[in-house]
Design goal:
Blueprint lengths: L2 H11 L12 H8 L7 H14 L2 H12 L1 H9 L3 H21 L2
Helix pairs in contact: 2-3, 2-4, 3-6, 4-5
Length: 104
């Protein structure tokens, strides 16, 4: 899968179907502000719940920036940094679980 298709798939995953907490996390907030057609509180809340279970808070803030700047995700994906590689592995797992739990 090409980088852009992968990023598009992850972005599509980040539009949750679960219930939203009173205080939105960084992923949910970015999802709601994304302007994506499928974005709603239920979907964005579901994705945030998965993020809370799979990503560190710093990872969540970093991933939330991908909504505004998809090129940033691409740069992380192609990076040779061990820290970026470790983050990307966590991010991919988050995307896999979010897709399984939130895409209905």
């Amino acid at each position: 899968m090409t980088k852009h298709l992968f990023l598009g798939a992850i972005a599509a995953l980040l539009i949750p179907l679960g219930s939203a907490p009173v205080l939105a996390g960084p992923i949910e907030s970015a999802c709601m502000r994304s302007g994506l057609e499928a974005a709603n509180r239920a979907l964005c809340g579901c994705i945030q719940n998965v993020a809370d279970q799979t990503l560190r808070r710093t990872d969540q803030r970093r991933a939330a920036k991908f909504f505004r700047n998809p090129d940033m995700a691409h740069k992380v994906w192609i990076s040779k940094s061990a820290a970026d590689d470790a983050f990307w592995d966590r991010y991919k797992e988050f995307g896999r679980i979010a897709e399984a739990n939130c895409a209905r």
